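Appendix B. One record, verbatim.
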Amino acid sequence: MDYIKHIYWLSPDETTLLRESLSAKGIKIKSAKGVVCTPLDIINKISIVAPEVWDDTCARQGSWYRASKKNGLFLLISANAVEGLAGKKAATIRAVDFRPSRLADLEEKLEMTGELDFLSKVPSGWREISDFEKRVYLRWAARLGSDIDDYDFLYLTQTANHANFIKPRFFIEENGHKIPYSIDRSAHLCSCCLELFQVLGDEHPKKLVAPCPGATIFARLEPDRYLLVEKP
């Protein structure tokens, strides 16, 4: 089955009206609990992520959402385009057979995360990492086949990956536009939701995003299979 998701950002009032409209047609919208990525599962046909979900399991990662212009908005993820919401559509997500020509090395990651204009955009909450979370990400990396046992490497990679969607250094080009892509394998990434849901890098017409471990576990996305995020 072809994988596709339609992404919308709605105000609280728009969300209430949508729920009422779809309920009248016998369509029930699921509400994401705990993590924001479960609506990406192919079995979930239409789901909403409320603002408070970004404060839950992945609250540190949610600091990017809270620092963005989308803070306070509801996220709608649907397997089909939703009638009447064309003007609210943020992206279409499709699975594609993309393989990057190369990934970022250690020196490049250090350079990307050390740029002053990027550092000024990093929310303070992103840097507040508990020892428990460090252990979780190392276990997840191992689960996806990585032999990395140094969390500092994972944090550097995850931060550099977000930097690449803010100021692309790794990208392909199409019709004069840069299409940034995830700079490492799924095992080493974090919070792909930020790119998939247009919290980061929404100025790019297209992005190529590899799922992070959380998305492979909670949304059953295929590790290392890139997703094309395309603006309407």
